[in-house]
Design a protein that fits this description.
About 30% of the residues lie in helices and about 25% in strands. By secondary structure, the protein is α+β, with helices and mostly antiparallel strands. The strands form 16 sheets. It has an eleven-stranded antiparallel sheet, with helices on one face. Strands 7, 8, 13, 19, 21 and 22 form a six-stranded antiparallel sheet that branches. The chain has a six-stranded mixed sheet with strand order 24-49-50-55-51-52. A hairpin with a 4-residue loop joins strand 29 and strand 30. It comes from Paenibacillus solani.
Amino acid sequence: MTQKKLTAGWTFTGKHGEFQLANPDRSSYLYFPLVNEAGMMSSITPTWHGDSKADQNSFLLAPVSAEDLHNSRAGRNFWVYIEGKGAWSAAGNSASQITSRIGNMDEADEVHLEAGLLWHRVTRQNKKFGIRAEATSFVPMTDDKVELMQVKITNISDKDIGVTPTAAIPFYARSADDIRDHRHVTSLLHRTYTMKHGVEVQPTLSFDERGHRVNETAYSVLGSEADGTAPVGYFPIGEEFIGEGGSYDWPEAIVTNAAAHETSGAEIDGYESVGALRFKDRILAPGESLSYVIAMAITNGRVNEEQYEKDYLSAARFDALLEDNKQFWQAKVGTVEFYSGDSNHDEWMKWVTLQPVLRRLFGCSFLPHHDYGRGGRGWRDLWQDCLALLIMEPQDVRNLLWNNYAGVRMDGSNATIIGSKPGDFRADRNNIPRVWMDHGAWPFLTTKLYLDQSGDTEFLFEPQTYFKDSFVKRAKARDDRWAPEAGQQLKTADGAVYTGTILEHILIQNVIPFYHVGAHNNILLEGADWNDGLDMATKLGESVTFTAFYAGNLKDLSDMLLQVKQMTGVSHVEINEEMLDLLDTLTAEKVDYASIADKRERLERYYNTVLTTVSGVKVSVDIEQLAADLMKKADWMISHLRQNEWIQNSEGYSWFNGYYNNDGERVEGDTPGGVRMTLTGQVFPIMSGVATEEQIRETVQSVDQFLKDDKIGYRLNSRFGGIQQNLGRAFGFAFGHKENGAMFSHMTVMYANALYKRGFVREGRTVLESVYELSSDFERSRIYPGIPEYINAKGRGMYHFLTGSASWLLLTELTEVFGVKGKLGKLLLEPKLVEQQFDMNGEASVETLFADKKLRIIYRNASKLDYGQYRVQEVKLNGEIISYAAAGHGCLLDRQLLSALADDQLHTIEVTLFAK
């Protein structure tokens, strides 16, 4: 008995993110996403486990969490009974193959994985059985919710072999809520049909959170040979397929090579079902192959078998749809492509670029590690995901942003659950009144990126409604006068739906927190901030770090308003008269910003004027005076944080305190249990401009001392010790996992972004390199290409694919590293590339969209100058020298120059760099 050495990891094999991996079945928890725009969402492992669904209430395969990937026996399968040798699974999902894989490697299958932008292929062969199977899976880019698989079996022996092929896909066919709650009872609802090409299940009713309803959804497993030949029979009932004492990884119908139980036209009621399709017995000569196509479909009503047979059930259609699928995803990811001195990193970034699209399609649920929620996204996710969509899918973002602002309440809070349709907002899951104090900060960050990319300043003045429900005063009170039948739009006293400009929404979200402070004059933590795990300091907790974020927003908004006036000539803006009370410098009643009581009193007075309705009266405000008011507030906050929240420990290290706990105690610094420090507490003071350059240098030293770990990178926090019930549930997690001291990619990437933004390029690059090296080191991370949500204490990548960190990494690489960004519609090219990021010819380039044009921006650095040594010498557009405005060490190009370019062409901008 011997053990084979584990694979050294995946390697890229093409120019479109294709990669290969040997022995993928020897790594646990690997899974791969398959999805389309029609709403089919699947995951698949090297042994074909995973699930397939359309939403929370429509699972074709049983819902799986990460542990189910190896605990469950009921995965996709394709069995080959070989005459004289017995049963063999093309998925490797048989009792004997699992035993061989773990305990007797001499008899184990040889397995090889190939994958690309959303197609997945596993080749498995066994010399003892004399057979090889190649299984390719994808979800086609059609209007149907369907997953396709082609299984090609080949005789690799030197003799003829007789084979009996059987596809076996166990149905679940109902809501995920029923996985434990009435699992058996809901099987009694099943109506199972055999057809010419497969098995279909349509439950009579659905038992889920929506109530007992007549069910229309049907689930099908259809199959054919390569030429369209139908199966010869079926085993549609699970308990009969596995047999008494059998299991899905050793079913009686397969291991005894039983005759098919049913043919086309049967109807069986009230059992767990399986799409077990028996194909015709065949004799395979040495080297001969046979192919089978399997379609797994979710339909509204009974499946149109004839149409699905035509559209999907042949090798020719499979190949054509696979090529379409590749072209679709290559084009999607090709919207942004990087070319540097490291081709592996460039290919890896293709998978990072894909991840925000996956998050849009899957939401924050529906992959094995994302075993929470019921689909959709929360408020923060919505805005941060738009950062990447602005780069990749900019066409629809304006309307998306506009729709999102309808979720803002007049008290500065917002709906936290966003439905699938525009304007579909809820207070929270199960109507729980909870406010995350950071939520108001993200919309302006995203809107500012949109305005810089587009120059569409008119967006600020678009009217939009406000969200209204019974929760008022940031969910600290109830409005007894509001009734659900009044609808979820704020109204005026005379009953008309109230609208305010997008600018008004932004002001409300960012000015109200300025007044909503705790005992140390920082913004109250409330239900939590970015770190949802800091959720147990709702009374006295304060978030210093997001106080810095809001300060940066107020400063940037002030600057933007002055630029808008300069660009457009707009001198006044309208806001609701109630809000004027919060813009205190514009009134006769000034607020003492150092007085916590004054701030709270002013905010309470405002709350009481907007409890149920608003007047609807607008006042005109001078834009320069408004900008000055915002800047005064920002300057006060920045000074306050620099003076009161900059701490030094006994060893002489200095950094920003990030939080106060529910006992009103400062969280960070020296404690009897050791040094406490958070990465989040450093990111936003740096990013927002609160930290001075000297403070940044000292902060970097402190982060390296207390948070940097050679094995897992930059920890989210140091070891606090104990469960911290006065701060949050995150500290109940084991240290080094998730929000308690793991390398949490989102905040690590934002740390890099902040450093780049403030000109600390080498420090930022070190951070980004650590993320890449950890993620791509397969021996440790055990994930496919891309960035995970976090790296755990052992270095394993966790919660892969659906992480907001991908949006931030894409944004950072494009706008900071490659320096391609907008400035109220103009194109700013200001690279922050170091010498090693240029190729052998001294070039680095990126393809991206700007001003609705596809651009390839090439930086030429023939002298191999390092960052800080170069500036722009010359700019060419499609080979012609053009004029530009100097901007730092970069250049600024007018939008009109780009707008005049032809559509549907790739245009080249060449930027020559030379020594300063």
